[in-house]
Amino acid sequence: MPQSKSVLPVYDFSLSLNDAYREKILPLFTQHRIAANPINYALLYDYVADQNPELKKAIDALLAEKKTLEMKESQELYASFVCSASLESFETIQEKIHQVLNRASDAVDRTFSQAEQAGDGFEQKTTLLENTSDVANHQAIILDIIRETRALAATTQAMQAELTRANAEMEELRGELISVRKVATTDGLTGLLNRHAFQDVMDDIIDHEGGGAVTLAILDIDFFKQVNDTWGHPMGDSVIKYVASLVKKHVADHHHVARYGGEELVIVMPDTDKRTAWDISENIRCEMEKVRLKRKSDDQSLGEITVSIGLTEKRDDDSVDSFISRADSALYRAKQLGRNRIEEG
């Protein structure tokens, strides 16, 4: 699996291990009628390497449901688990920043060089003025000083214009960079944080000890496979989007909501104890239980759609894995005990 958090994944497996993985990967393309493209190969590489359990879980779920990997799902999985952003976008912005800084630097260098030359010239002309009493020579020297001063002023104005332009371009590039970063951390379907962004949030929480209580909730749409089988995948996507918007409506501004994979969402709630998190989760569950979504084309109701939630509060000795695992176990109990409920871990 990737060993780096950089834009591009980095692999460090040996040649013999790569050969072994290839022998496992190639039959999967035929067995599941998966398109043999670089994105799917990268996904299946991580899949057979078994170094990314969440990716493996997501692929297993898709293969069980659809028997194959369609391009849309492949792209979402690749963006979430393998490569977090477009390298080309970052490289383009980096090159633009380099060009802007070079132009500004050249303008400053030209101005300093001319100012240095002008300073030397002024010093020489001052000496000439002091050593000559001829009025005509005085006038000629003064005219030279005026011309050089005007030239220096023009160069200084040009530098100021270039710096102003550079500042405007840097602001524009800063906006582009923010947009690229947003794309790199946003789930394409729901607009929530994606898996990589969620991992970064969790890493920060575990790395920064102390502070207030932190509660994690994992939410799963009950019987979601039936929704897809009955109404089709586009309608299933609409259901996921609706649940995502409902969750966002109930959480606080400082909470983080991410799409965890498929029909699962996660809510990271800093400065929120388990009791408060339970109330938030219960509000989400109750509202979803009452909603009756309808298909726009014929106004037909999709029936009752509910969610199950597992939540847990961070412990002092938690790692990211233990924190998530406890919430996941609570979610599993909620589903085992009948779904449409909340369980604590």
UniProtKB/TrEMBL annotation:
Its cofactor is Mg(2+). It is an enzyme of class 2 (transferase). Keywords: Coiled coil. It catalyses: 2 GTP = 3',3'-c-di-GMP + 2 diphosphate. GO terms for molecular function: diguanylate cyclase activity. The keyword Coiled coil applies. Residues 156-183 form a coiled coil. Its EC number is 2.7.7.65. SUPFAM superfamilies: Nucleotide cyclase (SSF55073). InterPro entries: Diguanylate_Cyclase, GGDEF_dom, Nucleotide_cyclase, Rev_trsase/Diguanyl_cyclase. Residues 212-345 form the GGDEF domain. NCBIfam families: GGDEF. This is diguanylate cyclase. It comes from Chromatocurvus halotolerans.
